[in-house]
Amino acid sequence: MEDLISNLPDSLITHIISCLPTKDAVRTSVLSKKWLNHWISITKLDLDDGVFYSQRRNKSGAKQNFINFVNRTLLFTPRNNVESLSLVITKDYDASLLNAWIFCILEKCVKKICINAICEVPFSTLTSHYLFYHSNYLEELVLKMCCCAIKVPPSSYGYFTFGSLKVLNLCAIIFTIEESLVIHLPVLTKFKTKNCLWLSAYDVTVEAPRLKTVCIKEDFKPLTRELRSCKIKFSASCLKEFTYCGHDGIMQPIVLSNPSVAYDAYVNIIIYKRGSIVDREIGSSACLLLKQFSQVKCIKFHIWGEVILNHLT
């Protein structure tokens, strides 16, 4: 009897495998000798521990099976071959293990990285160093964490460059910075953060000449005022849309290096206040942000869910 599976052309096998979830793609290695190593050629990896827990009655073995699966996948996948990788963590894992995975993902030169984790994942010194010094290939970075502490390493040149990064989406990242920080993002178009802190006595400058969209959300209030001291400065000449949403004021000052270039932007500022009185701190921080957009096409300022200012030119 003719073995149709083994006689399929390589291009068709690769196409079939690329359409499968990563877990199933790896399983195709048992179909025949010809299929044995084809799965390592896939360019999109989805590593989700929820798949292992939902499909197994023995929950105790699901965690180790997922660990083995990720270890094997990252071990055998060639460097520079993976274009997109998604890692979803819904259970608690050892921080050193997660750091080893993240470092390995960065080392693979993946263009698009998306990591979702419900557990705390403090980046190790090695992982942080690799992220800031060896990520020029990265085009899209999404880090949606429960709590992730990243200590920014000292810069050899006074700045860091992410030459290919177009989309940056961060959630619950706490950056610790010991010196003035300049991040050069020549092709970045979208900057989005939620509940992120930039802890530093110095300013943080984001140089992004092609940046079009900025969205900053902060739905918690820091325990100490010192956390607000770091100023975030945007150098962006193509800004089209700016959204800020915060609770009890603006956590950290946000300024534009050249406010006049944002004349064509649409601005939406929302502040939720606990209580019925707007205190002086909220008023001053809001005024500072509003001044950055005094020349824009459209600006909306909301507080307590009500529109306080609606300006259209």
TrEMBL record:
Family matches, as Gene3D superfamilies: 1.20.1280.50
InterPro entries in the cross-refs: F-box-like_dom_sf (IPR036047), F-box_AtFBL13-like (IPR053781), F-box_dom (IPR001810), FBL60-like (IPR055294)
UniProt xrefs under Pfam families: F-box (PF00646)
Domain F-box, residue spans: 5-40
Highest taxon above the source species: Eukaryota
Stored CDD domains: F-box_AtFBL13-like
The protein's name in its UniProt record: Putative F-box domain, leucine-rich repeat domain, L domain-containing protein
